[in-house]
Amino acid sequence: MAKYEKIADDLRVRIRAGEWLPGGKLPSETPELTAHYKTSLPTIRQALGVLAAEGVVDKVHGRGNFVRKPRKRVMRTNQRHQWEKDRARAPEGTRKATGATEHDTGLTVSDLVFSADFRKVEAGEVLADIFGVAAGTPLLERIYRTRYQEEDAPFNLSHSYLVYDVVKANPDLLDASTEPWPGGTQNQLFTLGIELDRIEEHFTARPPTAEEAEELGLRAGVSVLIVRKVSIDTGGRVVEVSDVTLPGDRTELVYTTPLNRW
Question: Which of 105, 155, 215, 221 sits 20 to 30 Å CA-CA off 33?
Fold first, then answer.
């Protein structure tokens, strides 16, 4: 193991032990860290570079190195969809009290900053095949971003698609100003007389694009999780498709599978 790696390991252990708290400043590169580890300034900077790439420390130009405050973690379980369905027909007051993001993070509505952008698009071959419609069929694309007000990056990047001719029966569903919608998509579908039978989620992982890394505030080496969520109604029809990009450094996926007893 190279010397800079050993120094990075030692600093990481000291940070995790609470020697420096989140937001706290590390000793100066020189003379403190070079003297403590009996090494050169380039070696110290290599070690700190490792920790910066991991998201453990932030280097602030002209001020020094600081322990990075951990981002709010999101726990997504496969039970969240039933939780949403149970609320879809609840009174508006109940639906307004909390949403899926609050459910996944433990935050409150007042902790969040939400944005939505709607646009009419044409279905490409992939989405057309999933929906079972002709390519070029009009879709409503909904782009959602939700972040913790104390952070500058959203929890995920979400693009939701609905067949335009289906949702236009309720004009409120075409208006981005009605978001965040109490009860989410399942309540929106309920207003159209649609009940979901099941939701399929397909997960993959890959390096982020430059745009994704910038928008999600990702450090080098952090992957993203890609979820394609397909919602199917009780008649077997696909009624919504969502593509969600999740940051790998602050997303935990928890799946519980009930097993039939012998």
Answer: 221
